[in-house]
Write a structure and sequence with these properties.
Elements: H1 2-19, H2 24-40, H3 48-76, H4 81-86, H5 88-97, H6 105-128, H7 133-151, H8 159-184, H9 188-202, H10 209-216, H11 219-248, H12 250-255, H13 265-295, H14 309-348
Helix pairs in contact: 1-7, 2-6, 2-11, 3-5, 6-13, 7-8, 7-9, 7-10, 7-13, 11-13, 11-14, 13-14
């Protein structure tokens, strides 16, 4: 059962990483596109976004009473500058939430902002990953585990049975080299790993026992790498789902923006949306730059035998944390900038 699970893991890794790599972020974004369009543009009179838009309109009507009370009090107190500048907010709310049945201006602007963030993210990935460094670094990190999963069933066999097992394993592993070279060319790290595997396949017996053990001995490490690779994909999906959740809550933020308070909910909503976008772009930058360090360093050294477990840990745990920290700092800066700009405009009017 354990061996079967490892073989299944190897096949999943080969299929996903060979065909994914640095384009994983964009492919994930593309898979979410239909959900975005369905929620924010198609038939919004009957879906979740349409219901929340109606609720946002209800909030706007309710908070308009508080807004008018504050506005009239300012007029009676002869504070004309504040009422004049505040009159723009009811118009903004009406414009953004109008026509909820066919997609509001707010929904179109939100979808446009999301597409802009995705385009910037894809430009970052393409500019920093022209040689598929991220994809290569992932494959370099797990290639030994993939080869080991094919060799592992042969470890307990002897004689002619082990020879036959190695023959079957060679067919699968040779196809792996073909896939690697068709994607990346004849790279040093592919040659180094192929040489190491051939030592086992061409010299069965005690002579290659240590080399065989180096491939098949790390079952726990294999499972950990599988989990961490899945964890980074989960983080990217979490980013996409968080952006969609914030987009759906947009009408409520706009509807509550007529409350006579200094911090408008629409500013907090916009800051949150941009912060998630910063986290997404930050993760892509971190992943691409770290992968470039590996591919331009130990991957090019034919005598090196690097343990890249740190790279998988970095992508699965540390890079998401770092990108969220950067997003929090960036979001705070955006919020302060918007607040200061609003105060400046209000004072000038």
């Amino acid at each position: 059962m354990w061996l079967d699970s490892l073989n299944v893991f190897a096949q999943i890794i080969v299929n996903d990483i060979l065909s994914g790599g640095a384009t994983t972020t964009q492919s994930l974004a593309d898979s979410w596109n239909a959900q975005w369009v369905d929620l924010l543009q198609n038939n919004t009179s009957n879906n979740l976004y349409g219901s929340l838009t109606n609720l946002g309109i209800f909030f706007a009507v309710g908070t308009l009473l508080f807004f008018m009370m504050q506005w009239l009090r300012d007029v009676l107190d002869n504070e004309y500058s504040r009422p004049l500048s505040a009159l723009i907010w009811p118009f903004i709310v009406v414009i953004l939430l109008a026509n909820p049945g066919n997609g509001t201006i707010l929904s179109n602007l939100t979808l446009g902002l999301r597409n802009f963030i995705n385009n910037v993210n894809q430009q970052v990935v393409q500019a920093g990953d022209s040689n598929q460094t991220y994809q290569q670094a992932l494959n370099l990190s797990i290639a030994e585990e993939i080869a080991g999963s094919y060799l592992r069933p042969c470890q307990t066999l002897t004689g002619i049975q082990q020879t036959q097992c190695f023959t079957e394993a060679r067919k699968k592993i040779d196809s792996l080299w073909v896939d690697y070279r068709s994607l990346y060319g004849d790279k040093t790290w592919i040659y180094r790993l192929e040489t190491k595997v051939n030592l086992v396949l061409d010299n069965p017996g005690n002579e290659s026992e240590l080399a065989l053990n180096s491939f098949v001995g790390g079952t726990v490490q294999t499972s950990i790498k599988s989990f961490l690779i899945s964890l980074q994909f989960a983080f990217q999906n979490l980013i996409e789902s968080t952006m969609l959740l914030l987009a759906v809550l947009g009408p409520l933020a706009v509807g509550g923006s007529l409350l006579p308070v200094s911090g408008k909910p629409i500013f907090a909503w916009l800051t949150g949306f941009l912060s998630v976008g910063i986290a997404k772009i930050s993760f892509s930058i971190i992943a691409v730059l770290t992968a470039a360090v590996i591919i331009n360093g130990p991957a090019e050294d034919v005598s090196a035998d690097p343990d890249l477990m740190w790279f998988i840990i970095f992508l699965g745990i540390l890079a998401p944390i770092l990108s969220l920290v950067l997003a929090g700092l960036g979001g705070l800066t955006v919020f302060n900038t918007i607040s200061n700009t609003t105060s400046l405009v209000r004072d000038r009017i």
